[in-house]
Write a structure and sequence with these properties.
With 622 residues, this protein is an alpha/beta fold. The chain has four domains: 242 residues, Rossmann fold (3-Layer(aba) Sandwich); 41 residues; 155 residues, Rossmann fold (3-Layer(aba) Sandwich), CATH 3.40.50; 130 residues, Rossmann fold. The protein contains 25 helices and 17 strands. Helix 4 crosses helix 5, helix 14 packs parallel to helix 20 and helix 21 crosses helix 25. The structure holds thiamine diphosphate (TPP).
């Protein structure tokens, strides 16, 4: 069937039984491709029936459909003219794992970070009205994404504006792991009182089909009936109180029912509508249903066994999690905080061992930081583990709530640098830049796993302001260099040379060592000084001063070249003769692809960096 269904117009021609068949084929296709390239399997399988029903009723080029995060939209991608490219999912030069306006006219809004869909869809709705376009706009948001502050801000605005916005809640009771928070408890309560809602929808259905003359009287009576009797069976629907018409809960795998309700919404209802759809994460693939959290996002796997193909080594996240457990055993003031990323940040064991000192705050990075600030004012030592890219959300909280008050929280920024297949929305390309300009910040960059442990121990005992520690995704490396003492604002000299120095940030120390080896083969007379900077802030100015009479300084960092180590070192030497040449990430959004391919394409491998250094040295020697 997928052979002949190329676009949403083709979906519209299908009968209900054909739609069910289409959903089964979509699932098969998703499993086939993701088993080879990895990806967000469980979210996309869970949203497949919903996608089919949506496209049966709505026209995405007219109504516009905004997905939240976009990780659940693989079926949508396949049905919007991307089936022939679906095998290239998340690979360099292939289609993205999220929605992207530059990839397809069907993608109404670019996504990757959570909780943006209602805001964007509301903007589109208002723009349509200004442009005299009567079509509705649709936002699809998960229960996890609904825990994010932006979603509440948008609901608040939308309920007041009363425009034709349709919000579909894809409620599977899961974020990446189990969803948390009072709102999720509330959604579960709604499910429990399902019979109430069924009855209520019957009343609304009936009202819609009565002549206008009697409609008003019936609505008034129905409201009274609802207030007096039915509300005693169930909680008030919060979304109705916010100005939405609430429909649901609806079985998100019952395609005919969804088609009926979406048709009703399309033709009969105006103003903001909230449709509560209940789905099962991973639906249709046994392993993903049973272990939805593992199948949220993963690398290639074997379809028959559901097992990952690649063996994972010990990651930096695991080193962080293990060390924090150890530190928390010694110090009962230490707490761990994450924003819906317990597994990803390595805090699973901490959560089990210290349930009273662990807080998953939901997809609420801003809140996580200020919450930690509050804890710190009372002498608690919070470690906030957030991916580098998601901490972008909390910039003002870091500046205003933490740094300004010099509160000693520790921000553990995982996934710093290039992250690979998740692409531009997920690379940790900016943290050094967005933290560097903040007064009172201490910024540390471990060169390897052993140094990450040292830095966490240092941070646990540091009381003089906030600390950020940034480390990359993936397998933890140990450079097996002799361990030296860690002192605030002091770099580590790995090799003492003369005239040329390589200053490396964090794990680029490994590149510095590889480049040094290559250099000594081609230029045996040159011995460069190799420095592990350890701290971007405070910058080791005493050490920089000792390099004043050098000819060339090369800096390495897996961060944007604007605002990071290279910028700081270049501005320090601005009035000196020494020339600073910086290697890092360009002033561009880096796309998706394997980390190895991306580093190759953007010149960030040791041989490629060395080629440029060699050229510079050849020019000097000429
Ligand atoms: C700001 C931000 N923080 C964290 C994430 C990581 N993240 C991606 S999907 C997800 C869970 C989303 O849950 P839900 O919206 O319920 O969708 P589901 O996967 O269950 O369908 C999280 C935490 C993100 N994308 N953006």
């Amino acid at each position: 069937m997928l052979e002949k269904v190329k676009n949403p117009q083709d979906v519209k021609k299908l009968s209900i039984s054909e739609l069910n068949k289409l959903a089964a084929e979509l699932r098969k296709r998703i499993i086939e491709v993701t088993s080879k390239v990895g990806g967000h399997v469980a979210p996309s399988l869970g949203a497949t029936d919903l996608t089919v029903a949506l496209l049966k009723v709505f026209d995405p080029l007219k109504e516009r459909i905004v997905w939240d995060v976009g990780h659940q939209s693989y079926s949508y991608k396949i049905l919007t003219e991307r089936n022939d490219r679906f095998d290239t999912l998340r690979q360099f030069g292939g289609i993205s794992g999220f929605n992207n306006r530059s990839e397809s006219k069907y993608d109404a809004f670019g996504v990757g970070h959570s909780s943006t869909s209602i805001s964007a869809a509301l903007g589109i709705t208002v723009a349509k009205e200004i442009n005299k376009n009567p079509e509705k706009t649709i936002a699809i948001i998960g229960d996890g994404a609904l825990t994010g502050g932006m979603a509440f801000e948008a609901l608040n605005h939308a309920g007041n504006l009363q425009k034709d916005l349709v919000v579909i809640l894809n409620d599977n009771n899961m974020s990446i792991s189990k969803n948390v928070g009072a709102l999720q408890n509330y959604l579960t309560n709604i499910l429990v009182s399902r019979s109430y809602n069924t009855l209520r929808n019957l009343v609304w259905d009936f009202v819609q089909h009565t002549p206008a003359r009697v409609k008003r009287r019936i609505i008034l009576s129905a409201r009274k009936f609802e207030e007096n009797i039915i509300n005693t069976l169930a909680p008030n629907i919060i979304f109705e109180d916010l100005g939405f018409k609430y429909l649901g809960p609806i079985d998100g795998h019952d395609i005919p029912r969804m088609v009926r309700i979406f048709n009703k919404v399309k033709t009969n209802l105006t103003g903001p509508v909230f449709i509560h759809v209940v789905t099962q994460k991973g639906k249709g693939y046994d392993f993903a249903e049973k272990n939805a959290s593992n199948f949220h996002g993963l690398g290639p796997y074997e379809i028959r066994t559901g097992k990952c193909v690649k063996k994972k080594g010990i990651s930096y996240s695991k080193v962080f999690g293990d060390t924090l457990c150890k530190l928390a055993e010694e110090n009962n003031k230490i707490v761990g905080i994450t924003g819906a990323m317990t597994d990803g940040t390595g805090l699973t064991e901490f959560a089990q061992k210290f349930p009273d000192r662990f807080f998953d705050v939901g997809i609420a990075e801003q809140h996580s930081v200020t919450f930690a600030g509050g804890l710190a004012t009372e002498g608690i030592k919070p470690f906030v583990a957030v991916y580098s890219t998601f901490m972008q959300r909390a910039l003002d909280q870091v500046i205003h709530d933490i740094a300004l008050q010099k509160l000693p929280i520790v921000m553990c920024l995982d996934r710093a640098g290039i992250v690979g297949e998740d692409g531009a929305t997920h690379h940790g390309a900016f943290d050094l830049s967005y933290l560097n300009f903040i007064p009172n910040m201490t910024i540390m960059m471990p060169k390897d796993a052993a140094e990450l442990i040292q830095m966490l121990e240092f941070a646990a005992n540091y009381q003089d302001g906030p600390i950020a520690i940034r480390y990359p995704r993936g397998k933890a490396v140990n450079l097996e260099l002799p361990q030296t003492q860690l002192k605030l604002g002091k770099a580590e000299v790995i090799q003492k040379g003369e005239q040329f120095a390589i200053l490396a940030a964090g794990t680029t120390c490994q590149n510095a060592l590889e480049i040094t080896e290559m250099l000594q083969k081609d230029f045996p007379k040159i011995t460069p000084t190799v420095i592990n900077m350890r701290f971007l802030k405070p910058l080791d100015k005493q050490l920089l001063e000792s390099l004043n009479n050098y000819k060339y300084i090369f800096t390495l960092e897996e961060n944007s070249l604007i605002g990071g180590l290279g910028s700081s070192v270049a501005s320090y030497f601005a009035r000196q003769k020494v020339k600073v040449h910086s290697f890092g990430l360009p002033d561009k959004f880096i796309p998706h692809g394997s980390t190895a391919k991306l580093k190759e394409a953007y010149g960030f491998t040791s041989p490629k960096i060395y080629q440029q250094i060699k050229q510079i040295l050849n020019e000097i020697q000429d």
